[in-house]
Amino acid sequence: MIALIQRVTQARVDIAGATVGAIDQGLLVLLGVEKGDDEAKAKRLADKVAKYRVFADSDGKMNLNVAQAGGSLLVVSQFTLAADTNSGNRPSFSSAAPPSEGERLYQVFCGLCQEQGLRVATGQFGADMQVSLCNDGPVTFWLQS
């Protein structure tokens, strides 16, 4: 399971011109589910995202996690993170989880983040989404479980 996280001042997801999820300060989490991923991997990754210290403390050091900074999560499914790009000029998605399993684990991940007290906004699994954000820093990290 892969999470590409970006520290944002704001982010939103639109589908067909309507906003379906939006946050102010927090983390945009682009989530990719791979074959073989399970609830245990979702839990490890949710814990890591929730605890990852990427927000500045009073001394300007990255010492605060999203909750300590008063932020939220916007979690967007993105199967392209599971692409195999090792050969050729076209990505292969053979390592991505099947859609039904990807959606199930996406929902599990979101629920685990909410259980940690985080406000979680989402996109819509499998939809054609337009994601807008203001990356703060820019600060972007690739996390994997």
Structure summary, number of beta strands? 8
Proportion of residues in β-strands: 35-45%
Distance between the termini: 5 Å
Mean pLDDT: 97
Number of alpha- plus pi-helical segments: 2
CATH fold-level topology? D-tyrosyl-trna(Tyr) Deacylase, Chain: A
Element pattern in H and E: EEEHEEEHEE
- The value of Rg in angstroms is 15 Å
Helix/strand-derived category reads: alpha/beta
Low-pLDDT sequence parts: none
Largest sheet: 6 strands, mixed
Please identify which CATH superfamily we are dealing with: D-tyrosyl-tRNA(Tyr) deacylase
Q: What is the architecture at the second tier of CATH?
A: 3-Layer(bba) Sandwich
**Overall number of domains:** 1
Query: In the CATH hierarchy, what is the class?
Result: Alpha Beta
Quaternary structure of the protein = single chain
Backbone shape:
globular
Helical coverage, percent range? 10-25%
Question: Could you please describe the fold and organization of this structure?
Answer:
The chain has 145 residues and is an alpha/beta fold. It has one domain: 3-Layer(bba) Sandwich (D-tyrosyl-trna(Tyr) Deacylase, Chain: A), CATH 3.50.80.10. The protein is built from two helices and eight strands. Strands 1, 2, 3, 6, 7 and 8 form a six-stranded mixed beta sheet that branches. Strand 6, helix 2 and strand 7 form a beta-alpha-beta unit. The N and C termini lie close together (5 Å).
Describe how the helices and strands are arranged.
Layout: E1 2-15, E2 18-23, E3 26-32, H1 39-51, E4 55-56, E5 62-64, E6 72-77, H2 99-115, E7 120-122, E8 130-144
Parallel strand pairs: 3-6, 6-7
Antiparallel strand pairs: 1-2, 1-3, 1-8, 4-5
Helix pairs in contact: 1-2
